[in-house]
Write a structure and sequence with these properties.
This protein has helices spanning 17-28, 42-51, 66-80, 104-131, 153-172, 194-202, 221-232, and strands spanning 8-12, 32-37, 55-60, 85-88, 135-140, 178-185, 243-246. By secondary structure, it is an alpha/beta fold. It has a single domain (8-188, 220-247), classed as Rossmann fold (3-Layer(aba) Sandwich). It has a seven-stranded parallel β-sheet with strand order 3-2-1-4-5-6-7, with helices on both faces. Helix 1 links the parallel strand 1 and strand 2 (32-37). The longest helix is centred in the middle third of the chain and has 28 residues, at 104-131. It starts with 7 loop residues before the first strand and ends in a 20-residue tail after the last strand. The protein binds nicotinamide-adenine-dinucleotide. Residues 12-13, 15-19, 37-39, 61-64, 89-92, 113, 140, 142, 185, 187-188, 190-193, 221 line the site of nicotinamide-adenine-dinucleotide.
Length: 266
């Protein structure tokens, strides 16, 4: 039996990158998916799922706006009879402004989308998921939320908040059988990072992308989608309140000179 057969699933940020890859994967494994995004590219995602023989419905929402999140949950319940999985994945980078170049408007917007969005997703999805006897909420955080060095102060703080939100909400949902976990992607080739990957490709410097992690490459969105799907599925039935780094090993070390495979340590 497919892992998501009979499951009703919402994916935010499904118009591109990790969200689109996850929506395609959920649908390919039998899930009925509400693909939600601010951008109209979300209709392409639904069409891709449709073409592959899956079930999807596209809605355009602002994932950081409460009435829109409520609407997405209602659409899922009306379309598919309830809700089993919420993948709160929509996010923005907000650019690379340092602390002094970040104004209050910028940090407010980054926190609104990246942190308040997942908070609203939990608040409105969890009761519906609990009504079905349980299920899963997966949040997209980032390696930037684990420690410094992978994003602006606003972005990093927002993602650190997402990691904590997974822990706190897993605790506060005690007894509901609703699990909450987060994924922490490292550098992944998506709409958000397109300029980095495009520049490296054009300059013939792809070997430099992701070179700081021991796998020495960036990720493809499907590699993140697989982990999100694992956490959303019953395969992860005893994984709760965790933030799983999916970063090629980047966050497993302090910045030190690495010992090379096959070479003697000096
Ligand atoms: N790409 C990376 O290297 C990387 C690394 C760590 C974390 N992440 C996180 O992964 C998640 C997915 O991003 P991605 O890398 O796939 O980038 P992406 O830009 O390809 O996709 C993000 C999607 O979110 C949508 N979105 C933005 N604001 C929204 C809003 N207010 N409401 C609804 N939708 C909105 C965008 O339209 C876009 O379709 C984000 O939370 C991002 O912070 C990405």
């Amino acid at each position: 039996m497919a892992r998501f057969s009979g499951k009703s699933i919402i994916v935010t940020g499904a118009g591109s990158g990790i969200g689109r890859a996850a929506a395609l994967l959920f649908a390919s494994e039998g899930g009925s998916v509400i693909v939600a995004d601010l951008a109209d590219t979300v209709h392409e995602t639904a069409a891709m799922i449709d073409a592959a023989g899956g079930t999807a419905r596209a809605i355009q929402i602002d994932a950081g706006f409460e009435a829109d999140v409520i609407r997405a949950v209602n659409v899922a319940c009306e379309s598919y009879g309830g809700l089993d999985v919420m993948f709160a994945n929509a996010g923005i980078s907000g650019g690379m402004a340092n602390i002094f170049d970040t104004d209050v408007a910028l940090i407010t917007e980054v926190l609104r989308v990246n942190l308040i969005g997942p908070y609203l997703a939990i608040k409105h999805a969890a009761p519906k998921i609990a009504e079905r006897g349980g299920g899963a909420i997966v949040l997209t955080a980032s390696v930037a939320g684990i420690r410094s060095g992978a994003g602006s102060p606003a972005y990093s703080a927002s993602k650190a908040g997402v990691i904590n939100l997974a822990m706190v909400s897993a605790q506060q949902l005690s007894g509901s059988n609703v699990r909450v976990n987060a994924i922490c992607p490292g550098l992944t080739e998506t709409g958000m990072t397109k300029p980095t990957f495009d520049y490296a490709r054009e300059a013939g410097k792809m070997e430099k992308v992701g070179r700081l992690n021991p796998l020495r490459r960036g990720a493809q969105p499907e590699e993140l989608a697989k982990v999100a799907a694992f956490l959303a599925s019953d395969d992860a039935s005893y994984v709760n309140g965790q933030a799983i780094a999916v970063d090629g090993g980047l966050s497993s070390s302090h910045p030190v000179t690495r010992q090379e495979y096959g070479k003697t340590a000096v």
